[in-house]
Write a structure and sequence with these properties.
Distance between the termini of chain A: 56 Å
Order of helices and strands of chain A: HHEHEEHH
Strand order of the largest sheet of chain A: 1-3-2
Low-confidence stretches of chain A: 1-6, 108-116
Oligomer: homodimer
Number of helices of chain A: 5
Number of strands of chain A: 3
Largest interface: A-B, 29 and 26 residues
Chain lengths: 116, 116
DNA sequence: GTCTCCTTTCGACAAACGTCGTATGTTTGC
DNA sequence: GCAAACATACGACGTTTGTCGAAAGGAGAC
């Protein structure tokens, strides 16, 4: 038989995504950076994200995003490619990703000089 | 007079709300229920929300929501009135609250009818 | 074959979270 | 003045989270 490959990557079906899980997944600066990077540049290998955390930490964040249904991952060779489930998210929660990405793109500094 | 002698309720200015804080505040079923109740029915006293947690727990959730800038509270007599900062949120993160509330209203129903 | 690269899993840790019961303080009403 | 109603503050508890380093394992290159 075919060798049992790596542990199967579980992805929740598009129809069963839960809002609280998605919000929780996005309520973290590192994960928000990951999502925005995917949004801007499309599918990516894990090691190519502009975040400053240990590889094992990044794996943890990917699992949170994956189990919430925000991203999907597939394996090709020795790389694991990660992509945004933009269509699924938009089908389940129309406009949510767009609005959050637009808000995340805003500078943390207010127009009147307010900090953060 | 309007002001009270109780410890002053601190509310972050509208321009300095942080997206991750708002998302984190909304990434909880109880708090999401509170926000939706405010959205539907306007200002309310603390004890009148359709949630099933201890009063002290509810106070904790109100603080999370208040410090994230999602709600504001004012005191009148022996009641504390809580209101949604819909305008401030929409100014800082346009459309965010609308989209999340719309998503929260979707048929995501849990086992015991819990909303998501 | 061996070796290297990429990513994950496995503890481990401190910090934060959600929950509660009890005590405290304020306001209203008797 | 005294008691009840409303909401908070405090302390406590178990769980979850974000973080890391070390070890493991598959895929491709040599």
């Amino acid at each position: 038989m075919i060798s049992s490959r790596r542990p199967l990557l579980v992805h929740p079906p598009a129809g069963s995504l839960r809002l609280v899980d998605v919000l929780h997944a996005l309520a973290d600066p590192t994960r928000l950076t990951v999502v925005r990077t995917l949004r801007d540049g499309g599918e990516r290998a894990c090691g190519t994200f502009p975040v400053d955390v240990a590889p094992s930490t990044l794996t943890h964040h990917f699992r949170v995003l994956r189990e919430a249904g925000v991203v999907q991952q597939r394996e090709v060779g020795k790389h694991r490619w990660t992509a945004l489930r933009a269509d699924d998210l938009d089908a389940r929660f129309p406009g949510l990703l767009d609005v959050i990405m637009a808000s995340a793109g805003e500078p943390a500094v207010g127009p009147n000089g307010a900090q953060v």
